[in-house]
Amino acid sequence: MHPLLVDRPGDQMLMLGNEAIARGALEAGVAFAAAYPGTPSSEIALQFFQCSMETDLYFEYSANEKVALEVAAGAAMCGLKTMVTMKHVGVNVAADALMTLAYTGIVGSMVLVVADDPFMFSSQNEQDSRYYGKLSCLPILEPSTVAEAKEMTIHAFELSAELRLPVILRTTTRINHSSGEVILGPLQQRETKGVFEKNPFAYVCIPAVSRNLHPKLLDKYNRANDRANRSPWNRIEGEGKWGIVCNGVSYGYVSDALRELGAADAFRILRVGFSHPFPDRMTQAFLEGCEKVLVVEEGEPYMEEAVRNSAQKAGLALRVEGKGEGLFSRLYELNPALVKQVIGDFFTLPFQAYQPIETDDLPEAPPRPPNLCAGCPHRATFVAVREVFGDLAIYPTDIGCYTLGVLPPLNMGDFLIAMGAGIGTAGGFARATGRKVVAFIGDSTFFHSGLSPLANAIHNNHDFTLVVLDNGTTAMTGHQPHPGVDLSHLNLARNTVSIEAAVKGLGVEQVITVNPFAYRKTLEAIQSLALHRGVSVLIARAPCPLHVRTLPSYRKKRAFYVNKEKCRNHRHCVTKVACPAFYLQDQEVRIDANRCEGCAFCVQFCPENAIVPVKMEEK
Q1: Which helix (H) or strand (E) holds 32?
Q2: CB-based contacts of 553, cutoff 8 Å, min separation 6
Q3: Which fold has domain 3-230?
Q4: Rounded distance, CA 275 to CA 271, Å?
Q5: From the DSSP assignment, how many helices (H) and strands (E) are in the chain?
Q6: Are 113 and 85 in contact (CB under 8 A)?
Q7: How do beta strands 464-470 and 438-442 pair?
Q8: CATH for 560-613, among 2.40.240.10, 3.90.1300.10, 3.30.70.20, 3.40.720.10?
Q9: Residue range 186-237, pLDDT digits in tens
């Protein structure tokens, strides 16, 4: 049995924040869940995927975040309890549907988990998703601990059912990926079948309908605002004259800082967990007892602006600060040392600044840039493309493991902004420059957001080559399936969508599929596509070496080693391939047999045939 399906109320369990959210949804009786994986949210979907194989919970990895929201919306309109999970940039994809879903509302309940990524550990921007609450008039809840993430998830379902609105559960990386003790509650019975009652003049958002729905949304907003001002997730602690407003993980940092400063009695804290609609009346009551206030939050000055608005409405003239010089930055994450320092400076408290550990006597750590895994087929494709086009072509790329191709010696990546944008921008580059353009996209990203820009390119006679890097999984976020993956080994009845058929169906005439580890054949295919005018597609198909280990058919291949007697130290294998299984010892090339995947790609670059398979041990 999956650990999250244990029904022993009162037991304690150590959980990741994302596991706690999934457990909260299960305790709330979630019946329908959908997701597109994206770090730091991916583990929530994994729990649902695994639990769905043991229960009647419906879960799907949807083609993208908008589709995930839409399928869950359909289920929620039939009265089911639903959850949708994604990372912050995924909300941009889902926003079109989300904005109008706020108008129609829902019949059952829907919790939208949005995982923000301050410091961009695995993201292309640091956007603050709380502004989607303002844009949509939807409630936002923000947990401060792992245990609270579970309890707040349950409350989110209850609030959604009460207001008949989607509720946003906004987290950050430190909550998603921290571990903590969680007390189990009872698992509710799931209701997996619903009924849809037709009401087109409330659900079909033509202008006349939407004009009636918008006032109803604003009424729900006012009700949510009343709930926020009375919510137990918003609380005032302490009775001092100095105020601190905080949320999420910053609440823990503030609590630790005040304890270490020995000044807790001088402060009162407004901890905001129900952050939109902002608890204005509670905030005004909090401010009336303060001489000045510091707002501690990651990202944008969202709460800072709200606190100032509350002060202005109440006619209070006091100093409210948060972001600015000498205060907190809109950049990156907060950390305990920084929070302690800013509190000390702002309130003129004596404190001992953090002293870095002396490391002058230690050797400098060698740089370890991120790298494609040993045996990654994307490396083989990049090497072949570079051999044909070199630096002359423009290489718009996309979101996935293959983004790491931007680093030397591969140097395969000239522009990246969003999923699917590699194809979309390729036509612009080609039209504007007249140069050869080679765009890259992964198999999962192709289904996520590659079909529309490819159709656009065909229709508008763009001229570029698209390389679909098909490694048979959504590798970057943990090997989740996508519409092109065969799931028969999991005994799941899912249809597999052919990339070749999709590409040809859109009208691409020049389509070639290769195994990128067959270097010469791949070169020939790229050279033939280079002569084609218009849109051509190369599908480079070979499995992700990490994912293939999880398949029942997996058989480990023999590793390779460098025969020192033959090697002349040309280092083509290192300078062109740059596989992390290679290393230098006494200025001679070696292969780490424990890391080598036996793909034999490097063998094809050695002029002396010095790279040979390790001999099998005699039995």
Answers
A1: strand 32-35
A2: 489
A3: Rossmann fold (3.40.50)
A4: 10
A5: 21, 22
A6: yes
A7: parallel
A8: 3.30.70.20
A9: 999 999 999 999 899 998 999 999 999 999 999 999 999 999 999 999 999 9
